[in-house]
Amino acid sequence: MTRREFVSMAAATAAIPGGAQAKLILPVRRVMNSRAKHTSQQIRGFSSTIWPEAARDFQRCGIELQSSEGKGEVKRSPGDRPVFTGLERGLINMVVTDHIPMSWDGGRALSGVSTRYEGYHLCVVALDHAHGHQIPLLSVNTCVHELLHVLLEDIFVNRPNPMQRGGRELRIDWYATRLWLFHDGWAIRAAVEAYLERARAERQASA
């Protein structure tokens, strides 16, 4: 994207009419991996900077991240597949750990990953590499990025090809940048409403 296109995006966003919006409550269960080797500095950085920054971004467009705390573990199966405990159905589970399991990371030093794991809606945040907003369209808040993958329904697409994966990453960083710099979340609000309906239906089906 050129500078002119980026400025045009800002102008278009500013033209979107404002007004009072009903608050949307988005439940997020944060699960600390008890097996992870966190440093106290990493925990402080997540609790005082990365997560609050994400919560502010969503709050500015009328979306409240209603977080609850839980305990769990990330284990490995004999086939090296990650095994998660402490998750809940019908909401977003954000597992906070030190690094992404190797079978998912593939040596890429990922800061986060989002997927559907045995029916659970899952974001994994790796404190070894997680960060707040850094560079528009390229390096945005890890929590915002991973939550948007769930809300924009990327986790419900099975086996995306490399082109689809690349397109999804560009789209996510686009929406995250608009949320960060321009507080533009009108499209994200619509996605949250649709996600909440879907999550409610899944809870009822599993009850």
Explain briefly what this protein structure is.
The chain has 207 residues and is an alpha/beta fold.
Helical region count?
A: 6
**For the largest beta sheet, what order do the strands appear in spatially?**
2-1-5-7-6
Radius of gyration: 17 Å
CATH architecture: 3-Layer(aba) Sandwich
Global geometry:
globular
E-strand count: 7
Uncertain residue ranges:
10-19
> Could you state the order of secondary-structure elements as H and E?
HEHEEEEHEEHHH
What name does CATH use for the topology?
Collagenase (Catalytic Domain)
- CATH domain class name: Alpha Beta
What's the mean pLDDT score? Answer: 90
Q: What class, by secondary structure content?
A: alpha/beta
Main sheet record: 5 strands, mixed
Helix percent band: 40-55%
Give the N-terminus to C-terminus distance in angstroms. Answer: 47 Å
Oligomer: single chain
Number of domains: 1
Strand content: 15-25%
List keywords for this structure.
Collagenase (Catalytic Domain), 43% helix, alpha/beta, 207 residues, five-stranded mixed sheet, 6 helices, two-stranded antiparallel ribbon
List the helices and strands and how they pair.
Elements: H1 3-14, E1 24-33, H2 40-59, E2 63-72, E3 74-76, E4 82-84, E5 92-97, H3 102-105, E6 112-117, E7 120-126, H4 142-151, H5 162-182, H6 186-206
Parallel strand pairs: 1-2, 1-5, 5-7
Antiparallel strand pairs: 3-4, 6-7
Describe the structure.
This protein has 207 residues and is an alpha/beta fold. It has a single domain (24-206), classed as Collagenase (Catalytic Domain), CATH 3.40.390. It has six helices and seven strands. It has helices at residues 3-14, 40-59, 102-105, 142-151, 162-182, 186-206; strands spanning 24-33, 63-72, 74-76, 82-84, 92-97, 112-117, 120-126. The strands form two sheets. Strands 2-1-5-7-6 form a five-stranded mixed sheet. A hairpin with a 5-residue loop joins strand 3 and strand 4. Helix 4 (142-151) packs across helix 5 (162-182). The protein is globular and about 50 Å long. The model is unreliable at 10-19 (pLDDT under 50).
